[in-house]
TrEMBL record:
InterPro entries assigned: Ald_DH/histidinol_DH (IPR016161), Ald_DH_C (IPR016163), Ald_DH_CS_CYS (IPR016160), Ald_DH_CS_GLU (IPR029510), Ald_DH_N (IPR016162), Aldehyde_DH_dom (IPR015590), Aldehyde_DH_NAD(P) (IPR012394)
GO molecular function, one term: 3-chloroallyl aldehyde dehydrogenase activity
Gene Ontology biological process terms, A to Z: aldehyde metabolic process
Name of the protein: Aldehyde dehydrogenase
Catalytic residues in the record: 217, 251
Assigned GO CC terms: cytoplasm
Pfam families in the record: Aldedh (PF00171)
PROSITE patterns named among the record's database cross-references: ALDEHYDE_DEHYDR_CYS, ALDEHYDE_DEHYDR_GLU
Originating species: Hirundo rustica rustica
Family assignment from sequence similarity: Belongs to the aldehyde dehydrogenase family.
Length: 476
């Protein structure tokens, strides 16, 4: 059956070449993994300028933002991995029962084999490189499929990454839907996908044919609740930064605000001030404000501007794919801006009566990738955290939780499954193999489990195998 779908598959040869390399065991030694990771570091150092230029061409990404998100955060992930890899790779010894006291029970962190990493266009280096760090660290071979939409970065990666990595074990495949569809017909040992929920379903369906495990890093609408008790100036600056970074094309950007009508009134001048402070009186002239990645995305976003009332911004220029930092007031849940992930520099405000209504609003919708709550009263922030569910959470700021390599990053429900960053990436790409290595001798210890069964053997078996509830021991 596999042959009937794979005969003539353009990627079958590549996948089997990588699988042969993986089976040879060359990716397993610590030294090999470290050498490949260090080569990734050199790629980032040597190609820094080209990365900044390519992301600028693709979506007018300001070089400050590109340096922070595509280079610095990747370097942090690399360094955390290199600093800890030796420890992470070690077998983890676990508790044993009485019979096994002379044996060895441990968790081996095994590589999966040949993994596929599919990336989107919005952070076109970061979103393939951070998973790749974990894939290499865990001892896998990998195929990377960057997004065809960020075409300048795609070209840069396709032309240069191979000069740094071992091409028997790592490859870049370029292309759009037809190419990725063919690629997905192959059997991989793990698929790590970042992108939209509809494509996530397609990837998971393709993976299911081979029972391949997946991580799905998806998107959606991230709510941001602003309580009446907060420092309005600080909220406006932190929300505007998170919403307008990369011209709003960030999966964890605050997608819409939930607040009372009074807070909406207070926020509007503060948001105006924050936007002017960040981007000057005309954001179009600002070197620190990006552009929309494609004409298709531009038109989709422009169509959302009819939601509620344009309170700030609203200007567009199709030739430049420019959309001004925009705030929409009094947006209704039925408006177009509330029907899809915005993924652009538009911030709708939906008015609610109080925190309970905000929580009901959030819980009535698909579970988001990120959830934000602002309040000077930490009880309010904690209540929002307690009574909702989301991939990640950040109180009194936006985006910043992503910068910690110590926190797991990932979605839940509609926003995805699985997690990564720091050690979580290494664990994602490792099969945790439960191993028991027994002593060859000491056969008397095993006799109670063999037939012929007796009541006395059952007694011994119970004493040696039983796990007791803590606090129920009658002897103490
Ligand atoms: P997308 O789902 O359209 O594309 C992602 C990747 O899938 C690309 O490499 C693309 O070539 C491939 N692809 C597209 N259609 C396909 C198909 N039919 N079959 C097989 N492969 C296909 O996403 P995008 O537009 O590149 O990125 C935007 C989305 O990604 C948003 O929803 C955003 O929230 C999400 N995102 C999530 C995260 C996260 O970490 N959770 C990060 C960035 C972006």
């Amino acid at each position: 059956m596999v042959c009937s779908t794979l005969c003539g598959n353009p990627y079958a040869g590549l996948v089997s070449h990588l699988r042969a390399s993986w089976l040879s065991g060359k990716t397993r030694p610590l030294e090999y993994r470290v050498a490949q990771l260090e080569a990734l570091g050199r790629f980032l150092d040597d190609k820094k300028q080209e990365i900044l230029e390519a992301t600028e061409l693709d979506m007018g990404k300001p070089s400050f933002e590109a340096f922070f998100s595509e280079i610095l955060l990747c370097k942090n992930e690399l360094n955390v991995t290199l600093n800890n890899l030796c420890q992470w790779m070690k077998d983890e010894y676990v508790d044993k029962n009485l019979v096994m006291q002379l044996d060895s029970a441990f968790i081996r962190k095994d590589p999966y084999g040949v993994v596929l990493i599919i990336a989107p266009w919005n952070y076109p280096i970061h979103l393939f490189l951070v998973p790749l760090i974990g894939a290499i660290a865990a001892g896998n071979c990998a195929i990377i499929k960057p997004s065809e939409i960020s075409k300048n970065t795609e070209r840069l990666v396709a032309e240069t990454l191979g000069c740094y990595l071992d091409d028997d074990c790592f490859a870049v495949v370029t292309g759009g839907v037809p190419e990725t569809t063919r690629l997905l017909e192959n059997k991989f040992d793990y698929i790590f996908f970042t992108g939209s929920p509809p494509v996530g379903r397609i990837v998971m369906t393709a993976a299911a044919k081979h029972l391949t495990p997946v991580t799905l890093e998806l998107g959606g609408k991230n709510p941001c609740y602003v309580s009446d008790t907060c420092d309005v100036t600080n909220v406006a600056r932190r929300v505007a930064w998170g919403r307008f970074f990369n011209a709003g094309q960030t999966c964890i950007a605050p997608d819409y605000l939930l607040c009372t009508i009074e807070m909406q009134e207070k926020l509007m001048p503060a948001l105006r001030e924050a936007i002017t402070e960040f981007f000057g009186p005309n954001p179009r002239e600002s070197p620190d404000f990006g552009r929309i990645v494609s004409d298709k995305q531009f038109r989709r976003l422009r169509a959302l501007l009819c939601s509620g009332r344009v309170a700030l911004g609203g200007q567009t220029d199709e030739a430049e794919r420019y959309i001004a930092p925009t705030v929409l007031a009094d947006v209704q849940p039925s408006d177009p801006a509330m029907q899809e992930e915005i993924f652009g520099p538009i911030l709708p405000i939906v008015v609610i009566a109080n925190m309970d209504e905000a929580i009901d609003f959030i819980n009535a919708r698909p579970r988001p990738l990120a959830l934000y709550a602002f309040s000077c009263d930490s009880k309010i922030v904690n209540q929002v955290l307690e009574r909702t569910s989301s991939g990640g959470f950040c109180g009194n700021d936006t985006l910043m939780h992503l910068t910690l390599t110590s926190l797991p990053f990932g979605g839940i429900g509609n926003s995805g499954l699985g997690k990564y960053h720091g050690k979580f990436t290494f664990d994602t790409f490792s099969h945790h193999r439960g191993c028991l290595h027994r002593n060859m001798g000491l056969e008397t210890l095993n006799t109670p489990r063999y037939p012929p069964y007796t009541q006395q053997k059952l007694g011994i078996l119970t004493t040696t195998f039983e796990v007791k509830r803590r606090g129920t021991c009658t002897l103490l």
